[in-house]
Write a structure and sequence with these properties.
Elements: H1 4-7, E1 14-20, H2 27-36, E2 42-49, H3 60-77, E3 87-88, H4 105-114, E4 123-127, H5 132-140, E5 148-153, H6 166-170, H7 172-180, E6 185-188, E7 198-199, H8 201-207, H9 213-230, E8 237-238, H10 242-247, E9 256-262, E10 265-266, E11 272-273, E12 280-287, H11 289-301
Parallel strand pairs: 1-2, 1-4, 2-3, 4-5, 5-6, 6-12
Antiparallel strand pairs: 7-8, 9-12, 10-11
Helix pairs in contact: 4-5, 5-7
């Protein structure tokens, strides 16, 4: 395997799909918009709605449906109605085991779509939620592991005391499938790494508010969410999902720094273990916050 491909994002224009629990928080919307506005470098082929369960949903299936509707809303605001025909509903539950996929239109699309690619010309799979859809596609069609590069925002830094991060916590089995299959894998850990990528109300109001319908929605949605729990207090809001998309645009290391490490093993008791003979992966450990934020705001408001 050419591990240089893991440390160095692709040059030129590449094909990618985005797997997102878009209704879960306010940051998925930024990631979707950033990907849509990076069309000079990214040919977005499909969008998949991922399951999630928290206070914003009644369960994984409801979370997936709400995410599907939110994706469609973002596509309208971005004037990208054409992408709605390649937006697919995802898993209605999490994996029950590491050998049984969750059947969904998203998993089927990824399994079939990835077969059109090769190891020399892979499909980039960017995932920013529970990674059930991607794991299901790999179980359905294991041979796609040699035709894709998986870029996942999930888990915590390898220095963290535990791995209790929302995306991985929801479906540990799916994370074990993806991280154990041998596919080229890029991890952007949440706590300790990408949690440094945050914004504030003054910044959003200055750079995004009233610039265009999409930018205005992102600014007001974020401010309203933060004010719901921090009204009258200083606050900053992490929009870390953007960083997974940014890895595809990281020529020259302008947005982040990574290194090659053996792929950790996520355990069901929510810690990670290590086997230093295990296959390698790309581990992002530093985010250049201001450089990435500048590129994000520039693209959202042009």
């Amino acid at each position: 395997m050419d591990y240089n491909r893991l440390l160095t994002p692709p040059k030129g224009k590449i094909d990618a799909v985005l797997d997102t629990d878009a209704y879960n928080e306010i940051d998925d919307q930024f990631a979707i918009a950033y990907m849509l506005r990076s069309e000079d470098r990214i040919n977005l082929k499909a969008l998949y709605a991922a399951p999630f369960h928290n206070s914003k949903s009644n369960g994984p299936e409801d979370g997936m449906e709400r995410s599907y509707d939110e994706i469609l809303k973002l596509l309208t605001l971005a004037d990208r109605e054409d992408m709605k025909t390649v937006t697919f509903r995802g898993s209605r539950s999490y994996l029950s085991s590491e050998t049984v996929p969750v059947d969904s239109p998203a998993a089927h699309d990824l399994a079939e779509r990835a077969m059109e690619y090769t190891s020399e010309n892979p499909l980039y799979v960017v995932a920013i939620g529970a990674i059930t859809n991607v794991a299901s596609a790999l179980i359905m069609k294991p041979e796609i592991k040699d035709r894709i590069v998986i870029v996942w925002l999930g888990g915590n830094s390898i220095d963290s005391s535990d791995n209790r991060e929302f995306n991985i916590l929801q479906d540990v089995a799916a994370a074990r499938v993806v991280m154990g299959c041998g596919a080229p894998f890029v991890q952007l850990p949440c706590r300790g790494v990408v949690d440094h990528f945050y914004t504030t109300a003054p910044e959003l109001n200055f750079w995004l508010a009233e610039k265009n319908p999409l930018a205005d929605y992102l600014a007001k949605n974020t401010i309203a969410e933060a004010e719901s729990y921090a009204a009258g207090k200083p606050w900053s809001r992490v929009i870390w999902d953007v960083t997974a998309v940014a890895w595809l645009l990281n020529e020259g290391g302008r947005f982040m720094v990574s290194r090659i490490i053996p792929t950790p093993i996520p355990q069901y008791d929510h810690h990670i273990s290590h086997d230093y003979n295990r296959h390698l992966m790309c581990y992002v450990h530093t985010i250049h916050r201001d450089a990435l934020m500048e590129d994000l705001f520039k693209k959202l408001t042009r």
